[in-house]
Specification:
Blueprint: H1 2-18, E1 21-29, E2 40-48, E3 52-57, H2 58-72, H3 82-86, E4 95-99, E5 105-111, E6 114-119, E7 127-135, E8 138-147, E9 150-157, E10 175-181, E11 186-195, E12 208-210, H4 213-225, H5 227-232, H6 254-271
Parallel strand pairs: 6-12
Antiparallel strand pairs: 1-2, 1-11, 2-3, 3-4, 4-5, 5-6, 7-8, 8-9, 9-10, 10-11
């Protein structure tokens, strides 16, 4: 009877793990190094299936859905409401995919017109603590790690059968409920979870370029110095043109548009001068 009970529990855990679940995290960020009072907060999804997990911005998903419907409907950018798109701007422009079988962590981010992908080459070395507490309905245990120039504290629960977490974090004996850096500049807090039919496929406008992490960092630095060289290269690559409001306004001068795009890219780089990874 004892063996039957253990087998039944194992089958139950396998069934739970095979389901597709979405965990919604509130992400709090201080991305501007010169203005730490500028606090950004938005939601991100961690979708988990039996084979992999995917972490991405809720706003990015909503923006992608709007663009997809517009282009599939054949009406193009003229039908996209600029104010609606501006309201869905995100500080989480990347996505992170974890493969359960290979334990590989793939990071995807847009630079200009293209998507750059690299496989994370730095392991997460957790130091387990015996300290426990309760966050919401979950009993959680503490663990710490140094990663990418920040010291992180995570609280994980074994109440949920997933060795995963937001961003690149995972590998603990349970799901990460909360993780934050010691400076209080970045934190991820689990808000809720629910079942989903399947993992989403994020729109990938432009070319997908696989690189080493060091090469991605170099490309990022080049983009900050000369954003327009990235926007003009590649012949378009399927990247949608900047959306216009549906309220008319006539044709815009291409030179003026390029100037605005360059100013906006430089301003965004300034506002994101305190990235989640410092090294």
């Amino acid at each position: 009877m004892k063996k039957i009970g253990i087998l039944a529990l194992a089958l139950l855990m396998q069934h739970i793990s095979a389901q597709n679940n979405r965990f919604v995290y509130q992400v709090t960020m201080k991305p501007d190094a010169e203005n730490k009072t500028d606090i950004k907060t938005e939601n991100a999804y961690l979708d988990i299936s039996g084979e992999k997990s995917l972490f991405y911005s809720e706003n990015r998903y909503k923006r992608d859905s709007i663009l997809q419907k517009a282009f599939q409907g054949g009406v193009g950018r003229a039908s996209i409401n600029r104010e609606q798109m501006e309201g869905l701007r995100s500080n989480i422009n990347y996505s992170v995919e974890k493969d359960k079988s290979s334990q590989a962590i793939s990071f995807k981010d847009r630079i200009g017109r293209d998507i750059y992908v690299y496989e994370e080459d730095r392991p997460l070395n957790w130091k387990m603590s015996s300290e426990t507490t309760k966050i919401g309905e979950y009993k959680v245990q503490k663990a710490t790690t140094d990663f990418a120039g920040r010291k992180w504290t995570a609280w994980f629960t074994t109440d949920l059968p997933y060795q995963d977490g937001p961003y690149k974090f995972g590998g603990l004996p349970g799901l990460i409920v909360k993780v934050e850096d010691d400076k209080g500049e970045y934190s991820f807090d689990l808000m809720k979870n629910y079942k989903i039919a399947e993992l989403v496929t994020l729109n990938q406008f432009g070319n997908t370029i696989k690189v080493k992490r060091a090469d991605y960092v170099k490309q990022q630095e080049k983009f900050k110095k000369d954003p327009m060289s990235f926007m003009q290269s590649g012949g378009g690559g399927g990247f949608p043109s900047p959306p216009r409001s549906s309220g008319g306004g006539g044709n815009q001068n291409p030179a003026d548009m390029r100037k605005r795009m360059e100013e906006r890219a430089k301003e965004e780089a300034k506002r994101n001068s305190n990235p989640i990874e410092l090294q």
